[in-house]
Amino acid sequence: MITLMPCFSKMLPNTRKLTLPLSIILTIIWPLSIHAVPETVNAPETTYASGQLSQDLPLTPGAPSVVFSYQLEGRPDPFRPFITEKAKNETNMDEIVESEETPTGMQLFEPGQLKLVAIIFEDNAELAMVEDASGQGYAIRPGMKIGKKGVVATIGPNQVIIEETSLTRAGKQLTNNIVMHLKKKGEE
């Protein structure tokens, strides 16, 4: 048995305390607290024909339904992956990635376009002289960049070694050494 709260005593003015079984109280109060439940609404109908998706969506229960249609023509499928198997297979991971650096100075010449004409050793300085096809001369030192990927590695008594470094799409570093020989007078 439970005792009614003081708020219920206002509803029943002649009784201060009223002892009722819980089942009776719930049968009286329960229906008052539940609002009218709407009828279940059937799931909206979905049709797909000739590139159109349409659904009948009710705004509120009992209100007329609104027709929504989606035009697929001319639009990409939002559920298709961006990278397809075909695109994965077409990408060559061994392809060399070109540098986006703007070439200046000796980077404008590839090592094959230059001819080694002199090597000078002076105290701690190593210097080599090269000339292009037009006969214009240039001085190069170790550490200078030559061509798109080359750097002067070493200057020896009769040769200059240029080390070319390239990166592939996979991030693999490829190194190639180019040797420029100093030719004696009369050699071509």
List keywords for this structure.
single chain, 188 residues, mainly beta, SH3 type barrels, 37% strand
CATH architectural arrangement of the largest domain: Roll
Mean pLDDT: 75
Largest sheet: 5 strands, antiparallel
Count of helical regions:
3
Helix content: 10-25%
Q: Any overview of this molecule?
A:
There is one protein chain. This protein has 188 residues and is mainly β. The chain folds into 3 domains: 2-33, no CATH class; 44-80, no CATH class; 97-181, Roll (SH3 type barrels). It is built from 3 helices and 13 strands; from the N terminus they run E-H-E-H-E-E-E-H-E-E-E-E-E-E-E-E. It has helices at residues 6-11, 22-33, 85-90; strands at 2-3, 19-20, 46-49, 52-58, 65-71, 96-97, 115-122, 125-131, 137-140, 145-146, 150-155, 159-168, 173-181. Strand 10 and strand 11 form a beta hairpin. It starts with a strand and ends in a 7-residue tail after the last strand.
